[in-house]
Amino acid sequence: MMKLHLSEVQLCSLSKYSIKLAYSQLVSPSGNKMYWANAIWCKLAQPKHRFISWLAVLERLSTKDRLKLFGVSVDDLCLLCGVEVENHSHLFFGCQYSSRCWEQIAGFLQINTSIRSLPQLIKWIHRRKFTKFRKGVLFTFAWCLVYHGKMEDASALKSFATLSRGAIFAKSDASSRARGGRHHQNYGNG
Ligand SMILES: [Zn+2]
After folding, report:
1. Ligand 1 centroid to 71 CA: how many Å?
2. Would residue 143 be called left, alpha or beta, if left means φ above 0 and alpha means ψ between -120 and 50 degrees?
3. Is 180 left (phi over 0), alpha (psi -120 to 50) or beta?
4. Is residue 26 classed as helix, strand or coil in its secondary structure?
5. How far is ligand 1, taken at its centre, from the CA of residue 159, in Å?
6. How far is the CA of 103 from the centre of ligand 1 (A)?
7. Distance (Å) from CA 87 to ligand 1 centroid
8. Quick one: CA torsion of 29, 36, 103, 138, rounded to 10 degrees?
9. Distance between Cα 85 and ligand 1 center (Å)
């Protein structure tokens, strides 16, 4: 079961087999302080968004490069652009379609648009002097994007990527109101 989540190298690096050690490798492969845990498990975000984002940060999603590596698929080309290999970095930041969505939303939220990885994004938000609520809102948007980047079908994502920034947020606003508008607040005021 652990082999589904940890590589053989990670498993072999454990000094002895124990669930506790394996779990710590799973949640923090580098052994560094888990400063991003609070970011991932932020309460504003939907549980399914948090879970997919957790796997995405650990690069454990079933991207096509991994499926090919495991012999599940013979093709590793990105489902969106069909040109480059679909790995975590490409799926969320490198692909022309996801990159367009990311730049529109990062620009609106005033996040550094040159960020090109999820750990980099977490670190950037973590280091800002924002209130806890504002950081939570930024992470909520980010995890929503990660979820839809992985779970939506290709045609829906492509059409989303061609929307203007205003249209993207009109959709996001309608979705928020449909959920009760609980978190519909001006994040910009801190
Ligand atoms: Zn692509």
Report:
1. 21
2. alpha
3. left
4. helix
5. 14
6. 15
7. 9
8. 160
9. 7
Distance 65 CA to ligand 1 centre (A): 12
Centre a 10 Å sphere on the Cβ of residue 123 and count the other Cβ atoms it contains. Answer: 14
Single-letter residue type at 19? I
C-alpha 177 – ligand 1 centre gap (Å): 32
Question: What's the CA gap between 142 and 5, in Å, rounded?
Answer: 23
Find the radius of gyration of the CA atoms of the chain.
18
What separation in Å is there between the alpha carbon of 86 and the centre of ligand 1?
6
Q: Kindly report the pTM of this predicted structure.
A: 0.67
Q: Is 97 exposed, middle or buried (0-12, 13-18, 19+ CB in 10 A)?
A: buried
pLDDT string in tens for the chain (190-residue length): 444 455 554 555 555 555 665 555 555 555 455 677 889 888 899 999 999 999 999 899 999 999 999 998 889 999 888 999 999 999 999 998 888 888 888 888 899 888 989 989 999 999 999 999 999 999 999 998 888 888 766 666 666 666 655 665 565 555 445 444 444 444 433 3
Q: How far is CA 47 from CA 3, 41, 50, in A?
A: 24, 8, 5
Taking the centre of ligand 1 as the mean of its atom positions, its distance from the CA of residue 91, in whole angstroms, is 6
